[in-house]
Amino acid sequence: MASSVRLAKTFVIDTNVFIHRSDAILSFRGVDVVVPLWVLEELDQLKSYSDERGRNARHAIRLIDTIGKHGNLREGAKMDNGSRLWVALTHADPRDVGFLNDKMDNRIILAAYQLQQEGREVFFVSKDINARIKAAALGIKAVDYDKQKVDADSLYSGYSDFDASAEDMGRLSRDGELSWVDTLPPNHFLMLHNPSVEDSVMGRYDSAQQKLRFVDYKMPSVVGVRPLNPEQRMAFELLLDPDVNLVTLIGKAGTGKTLLAIAAGLQLTIDDKAYQRVLVSRPVIPMGKDIGYLPGAKNEKLSHWMQPLFDNLEYIIASYKRPNMKTVDQLVGSNLIELEALSYIRGRSLPGQFIVIDEAQNLSPHEIKTIVSRAGEGSKVVLTGDPQQIDSPYLDASSNGLSFLVEAFKGQDLFGHVTLQRSERSRLAELAAELL
To answer: From CA 384, how far away is CA 359, in angstroms rounded?
Structure first.
């Protein structure tokens, strides 16, 4: 870079930030944004991929090129948000700082180090915690990209407890509704308690009428599945409501979130004829990864990755004896259930379908947007997962797409959410989830 530039706050962007969000450079206002040349090298290697990484890499390169056409990337190209974009080449000798220069990550960090040696206030922005540790070891301020992060410790649960009068509890149970002046998010559940009343009473907030609607614990089984605790009853209330088009269920292993979602989908599809089919998927395969190397047709290939969903289906079939629900293969063959790879959902329009995305905590906010935006008229989308069990190296409980969606959609009348707390799989499963 030219030595005549002003010494401003400088944010050096790592490659993985662009993969997380391709237009990340637009998030920084009134500062200098630096893209090391080595980042462009990595984006160039990724651009040919057919998955989400490839798409984000291509979009990031096009964005940088567009900005560069309106300025000089060597001396700083002005952006509409008041920042300037630079492309930097590392000149620092790695031996001076005891750094190996054989890894691309190290070369990118050395670009940040070089800028700091020039007297700049440098922030190294990366989704890679190991890269941030290396940068911090060189005395560089290292930060995570948190544009789409939420506070995982205070994530919306979908329900709360309330100390109510015995009269109000009786009125809600007797009349089926109760006027409620306190503003709550739409479809929020309240558990009303009173020491003089043996059982609590559940209500669901109707934001349009500003009333609590009574939710009866007792309900018919859903394809042989009954709720075993209040949170599961809340989940069924949302899953079976055609006016709630988007439902998120969060909970640790064994809380029943996937089983409830599939059971509700089958009930609404087979018995109620509300949807054409149940479409199920899960991001065990990184989004967009080709499944062509696996043997067999698409369903055979996907079955290797969908086995946890098959386990739930087999449990339902064993509990709910129906002529058209004898085997999983029969359900798939009759097109009542469709398996789909997440990479193939992009570009599709999915009207009239009950869509279940399991393990959604392993998706980025952009990937979640890609999936939810595929829902056509008359479709319902259900996302389940546990933000505390994330396999992606660049996501955590605060930055994953499922947590982000819960906070983003809270307050929308077509959205409902429940955090399931109690494991019903077995006492062993509950202890494993808590202790391990």
So the answer is: 6
Q: Where are the domains of the chain?
A: 9-143, 152-159+221-435
Question: Within 10 A of 164 (CB to CB), how many other CB atoms are there?
Answer: 22
pLDDT in tens, 27-49: 998 899 999 999 999 999 999 98
E strand intervals along 252-352: 277-281, 337-339
Burial class (CB in 10 A: 0-12, 13-18, 19+), 126: buried
Domain 9-143 matches domain 152-159+221-435 at the CATH topology level? yes
Q: Are 292 and 268 in contact (CB under 8 A)?
A: no
pLDDT confidence bin for 3, thresholds 50/70/90: very low
The CA-CA-CA angle for residues 66, 71, 77, to 5°, reads 85
CATH 3.40.50.1000 corresponds to the domain 152-159+221-435: no
What's the whole-number average pLDDT of the chain? 87
Q: Say which CATH topology domain 9-143 has.
A: Rossmann fold (3.40.50)
Q: 7: pLDDT confidence band, cut at 50, 70 and 90?
A: low
